[in-house]
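User: Hi! I'm working on a homework problem where we have to compare a predicted structure to a textbook description. Could you give me the structure for the chain below?
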Amino acid sequence: MRDEYDARVTTALSEALAASRDAPDPETAVVCFTAATRRVLGDPARLARPDALKPGETQFVVSGCFFVAPSGDHMILCAQNGFPPSQSHARVSTTDSRPGHTVQTGIPAVVPNTDVDPIFRQILASGVVGCSVYVPVFWEGRVIGMFNTAAQARYFFDERDLATQVIFAAAAAATWMAKGGPAYLASLAASLPPWTAP
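Assistant: Happy to help. Predicted C-alpha cells:
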C-alpha cells in the first residue's frame, strides 16, 4: 500500500513539474501542483468510516494556494481547484483562523476533523470542509503563502499526506518565483478592490 502511494505521488510530482514549465504565468504554473494534490492526497478507504460524512454530505476535495499580498495584511487565493467561481482570488486576513495561523507560525498541520478544531473557520463557500491540510509556502526562509488541500470527509488526510504536501508546496514555491510570482501577485492585488478585514 505504501509503495502504491509513493509511486502515485512521484508520478504526480513529475507530471506537475513538467507541465508547469510550459505554463504562461505563475498562477497557471502553480495550478499544476494544486491539481496534483487534489488528485493524490487522501485515502478513499476512509470514506467508509461511519464518522467520515454526515447525513446529506458528499465527498469532495478542493485545493489552492493563498499567497500573501504585498501589503502583508491579507492573502489572495490563487491556483484554486474545486472552489466556486465566486471565490476566485478570494482574500483572507493573514491572522484569520487556520490559514492565518499557518503563515504566522510557519508550521504545517493536518486537521483530521474540523468539527473539533478550535481555530478552524469555514472559508469554502460551496460545501463544509471536514478535513484539511495546511502547509506554509516558503521562499528564502520567509513564508510567502499557504498551500491548502481540503475534503468534506473527516479523517480523509493524515500525516503521510501532510508530508507529501510539504514537498508539493516547495515545488510550487520555486515555480512561482521562477515564473515571476511576486510581480504577478502585485498586479493582481492592485486590480482588486481595496482590502478591508471582515
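For your comparison, note the following. The beta strands are 61-68, 74-81, 91-93, 109-111, 131-139, 142-151. Helices lie at 2-21, 26-40, 97-105, 159-178, 181-191. Good luck with the assignment!
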